[in-house]
Structures are given as C-alpha cells and as structure tokens.
Design brief:
The chain is an alpha/beta fold and 103 residues long. The chain starts with a strand and ends in an 11-residue tail after the last helix. The chain has helices at residues 17-27, 40-47, 75-78, 89-92, and strands at residues 5-11, 31-37, 56-60, 63-64, 67-69, 86-87.
C-alpha cells in the first residue's frame, strides 16, 4: 500500500539528486515517478496537471532571484515555447490564480 503519489521533476542539470530522492521516497512507501523535463512546455504540463496527477511534486532544479533556471534551447525550438530561460513566480501565479495557465 502506497502512502502517497509523488512526482520527482528533474529540471536542467540536477546530477543524481532526482534518482536519490526517487529511491528514498519509494523506500518510505510512496508511489514515485521520475519526470525529466526537456522543455518549458513539458514543465508547464507538469505544473498545470496535464502531465502530473500526483499528490505531491518535488522540483529538482536550480534558480536565482528571478525564478527557476531553464536550459538554453536552440532558437528554433525556443520560439515555440510558452516561456524561456527563467520561470518566474509571476508566470506561475498570474493574478493570484492557483491555476497554472500559460496560454
């Protein structure tokens, strides 16, 4: 019996941290999935519930005062993404809404 469902989200260069967390959480009885993020649109899908329905999300990432830092993409790919370089808190919480809608 699982105690909770947890998605461990790997964003950018995280080394072995997501794998260690996945193993530890599974050892404690969680139903764990590892979700590597390949693009900003993947991250948006995780955060808005399209790609994740887990009880809990663990974000493995790096950031600074601006927000979560994302990998640099080829310009041809980047122009089709909902955001690039940094995911800011303002982008996540538009006008106080708990819903993550990037469109």
């Amino acid at each position: 019996m699982f105690v909770a469902t947890v998605d461990v989200v790997a964003i950018g260069e995280t080394r072995g941290e997501p794998y260690a967390l996945r193993s530890l959480l599974a050892e404690y009885g969680a139903d764990v999935r590892l979700l590597p993020v390949g693009s900003p649109s993947h991250l948006a899908g995780v955060l808005n519930g399209t790609l994740s329905r887990a009880d809990h999300l663990v974000l493995c990432c790096h950031g600074d005062e601006r927000g979560i830092l994302l990998d640099t993409l080829d310009p041809e790919i980047a122009r089709h993404q909902p955001f690039n370089e940094v995911l800011t808190p303002q982008r996540v919480f538009c006008e106080g809404s708990p819903n993550f809608n990037l469109s």
